[in-house]
């Protein structure tokens, strides 16, 4: 008889880089999850902004099973139809001329940073290698990307780190203007800092970065791993800001739950990557790209993208009503369906506690640091599910405040 899997197995067999919840979800549909005991949860986390179409979307499931009947994997000595179709979709919908596919946001950012260094070396092999990044940023967990991220708690234990990376204050254009130089090969920025607290960039900040990069012949990289594929109400956030980067990274929602990432760029930069300079075994996998192609097709419509703004209002109006009664938040911020509820100073450091109480009430949310409750639900979540999830959150808030 097969032995039942329990949460205890994580502590027994898994490397402890996570501290997962006590319950184990086993089934999902739409904006709902069910655990081993049958308890239901409204999902406001979306797998950390991944499940942009919810769980088990029928058309995405069909795309996966259809491709699974054909070919799963080939390796990068061959190309395949789904990857070429997806590349054309991304190029047609964005500023980009070329796409490189990988397996995650971290890998997409790794490729972007490597390409930026390669471009810098081609202009001045000895000196044009500095990367400007921002404090509280998050770009991934590889050694290069965790070094570019501006949160020492994630990088300091792995020193020595890759050099020539400078961290400046986010949304402080004067700090960048005072520092950037001919040595700078790239500036990497999130249009909305996700892990850093759901903090949107000021429009003048991003416009200023574009101008400074042009002035100093540096590459502007937008990390849209969390903001991309409809999350902000535009297909990509750069379109909302009307600032065009040189390189854009995308992952998370791109696969709707299937692991995939991509780096998008223009011809003049893409040409610096030649056979052998970079690669990945699984990147551009037929299964992943078939799924991502369907996800992208479904999201890149006026109905879905326009619906994000409506859902933003559903969330913010109700959150403000709840907060009017309990005064637990000091601010509700974010763009589209990437939302942050900042804990009031009297509840400083209690975002995780509130998130745990919400889970007990049947709501799955996220945190972004110790003081921000974060929501990144399905882009097509029904209004009834939003209301039910916020009812459960209100019960959790009442318990926190009691």
Question: Keyphrases for this structure?
Answer:
7-stranded mixed β-sheet, arginine biosynthesis, transferase, 4-stranded mixed β-sheet, Aspartate Aminotransferase, domain 2, alpha/beta, Aminotrans_3_PPA_site, Aspartate Aminotransferase, domain 1, globular, 402 residues, 2 domains, EC 2.6.1.17
Q: Could you give a short description of this structure?
A:
It contains 15 helices and 17 strands.
Topology:
Layout: H1 8-13, E1 25-29, E2 32-35, E3 40-43, H2 46-49, H3 58-68, H4 81-93, E4 98-102, H5 105-123, E5 130-134, H6 143-148, H7 152-155, E6 165-168, H8 173-179, E7 184-189, E8 192-193, E9 199-200, H9 203-216, E10 219-223, H10 237-241, E11 247-250, E12 261-265, H11 267-270, H12 286-299, H13 302-326, E13 329-335, E14 338-343, H14 351-360, E15 363-364, E16 366-367, E17 372-375, H15 383-401
Parallel strand pairs: 3-15, 5-6, 5-7, 7-10, 10-11
Antiparallel strand pairs: 1-2, 2-3, 4-12, 8-9, 11-12, 13-14, 14-17, 16-17
Helix pairs in contact: 3-12, 4-12, 13-15, 14-15
Q: Please, could you describe this protein's structure?
A:
A 7-stranded mixed sheet has the order 4-12-11-10-7-5-6, sandwiched between helices. It starts with 7 loop residues before the first helix and ends with a helix. It is an alpha/beta fold and 402 residues long. A hairpin with a 4-residue loop joins strand 16 (366-367) and strand 17 (372-375). The mean pLDDT is 97. The longest helix has 25 residues, at 302-326. Helices cover 40% and strands 18% of the residues. Belongs to the class-III pyridoxal-phosphate-dependent aminotransferase family. ArgD subfamily.
């Amino acid at each position: 008889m097969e032995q039942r899997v329990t949460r205890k197995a994580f502590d027994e067999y898994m490397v402890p880089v996570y501290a997962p919840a006590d319950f184990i979800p086993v089934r999902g549909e739409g904006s709902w999850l069910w655990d081993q005991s049958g308890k239901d949860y409204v999902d406001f986390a979306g797998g950390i902004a991944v499940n942009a179409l919810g769980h088990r979307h029928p058309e995405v499931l069909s795309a996966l099973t259809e491709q699974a009947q054909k070919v799963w994997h080939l390796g990068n000595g061959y190309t395949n139809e789904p990857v070429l179709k997806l590349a054309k979709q991304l190029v047609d919908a964005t500023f980009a001329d070329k796409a490189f596919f990988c397996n995650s946001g971290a890998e997409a950012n790794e490729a972007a940073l490597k390409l930026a260094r390669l471009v810098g070396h081609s202009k001045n092999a000895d000196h044009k290698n500095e990367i400007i990044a921002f404090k509280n940023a998050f770009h991934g967990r590889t050694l290069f990307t965790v070094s570019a991220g501006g949160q020492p708690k994630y990088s300091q234990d792995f020193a020595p780190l890759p050099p020539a990376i400078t961290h400046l204050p986010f949304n402080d254009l004067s700090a960048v203007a005072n520092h950037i130089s001919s040595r700078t090969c790239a500036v990497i920025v999130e249009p909305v800092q996700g892990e850093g607290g759901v903090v949107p960039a000021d429009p003048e900040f991003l416009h200023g970065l574009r101008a400074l990069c042009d002035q100093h012949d540096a590459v502007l990289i937008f990390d849209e791993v969390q903001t991309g594929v409809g999350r902000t109400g535009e297909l990509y956030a750069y379109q909302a800001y009307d600032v065009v980067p040189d390189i854009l990274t995308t992952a998370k929602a791109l696969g709707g739950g299937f692991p995939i990432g991509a780096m998008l760029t223009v011809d003049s930069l893409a040409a610096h990557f030649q056979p052998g300079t970079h690669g990945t075994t699984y990147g551009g996998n037929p299964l992943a790209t078939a799924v991502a192609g369907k996800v992208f097709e479904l999201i890149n419509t006026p109905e879905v993208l326009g619906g994000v703004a409506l859902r933003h209002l559903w969330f913010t109006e109700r959150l403000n009503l709840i907060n009017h009664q309990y005064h637990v938040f000091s601010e509700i911020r974010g763009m589209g369906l990437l939302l942050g509820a900042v804990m009031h100073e009297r509840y400083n450091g209690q975002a995780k506690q509130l998130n745990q109480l919400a889970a007990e009430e049947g709501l799955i949310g996220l945190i972004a640091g110790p003081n921000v409750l974060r929501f990144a639900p399905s882009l097509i979540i029904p209004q009834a599910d939003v209301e039910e999830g916020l009812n459960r959150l209100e019960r959790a808030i009442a318990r926190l405040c009691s």
